[in-house]
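Narrative summary of target 7.
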Amino acid sequence: MIIKITACTLLVVLLGCILFATPVNRQKQVLESCLALASGDNAAAGSAGDSSAIKITDMYITGADGAKIKATYYSPGKPGPAVILLHQCNDNFDRKSWVPLATALAHRGIHVMTYDFRGHGETPAGGGAENPPGDADAALATLLAQPGVDAQHIGAGGASCGAAYAYLLTARYGRMKALMLLSGQLGDKGLEYLSQHNELAVFDAASSEEDTNGQVINKTVAASKNPASVATLVPNGGHGVPMFKASPDLLPTVVAWFEKVLKN
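Modeled conformation, tokenized:
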């Protein structure tokens, strides 16, 4: 027999225990306080989206050479736009570094795909390159094939080397609406691409340690003709994904930006 324990069940049990241990003359006050807290929690959950519908699935994607690439798909449980995220190349980073962002995006109705480069996480090394174009293309194709994904509203994001890979994927696909770069610098060809694709909005973030006055990120956004493009400088934020920890406002800002760009 399987017993399903919901948040409501736990609240009822907890409330009963609290009332049992509370003097009779204070039980009404405690009950009112608990109900007010529950009401507030429900309001907060409603504003963040329906998390109960989110489903996270680990899978293998087949690269162009037949290699098995470990990936994770985050489904919001309803039709909507989608984002593919490419991790940075440091030894201690893999697809799991995106869990907080991917989960937050799914809460907002956005489908997400992450995957491990070769030699990272649960994908074995091999094939001569850590992230050959065929792997990223296969991951994107798998994302686009998921039920409910709106192929007309797709975004990509990456950190450090993953930012460069995200741009290259964007250029190959040719129909991206949003590109997030964390500690990523586009070359002249990348800036030229942005200037020629007004439909592509860019979110470019870097720390003050790597882009002291924001010159690089401002140059990237200046090349974009999309009014939704944004440059964000994080004081002493580190490199790539660690900027989320250094600046707690950054992750919700990125989520809101993706939602704004991809749902319009």
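Residues 54-262 form a domain with the Rossmann fold fold (CATH 3.40.50.1820).
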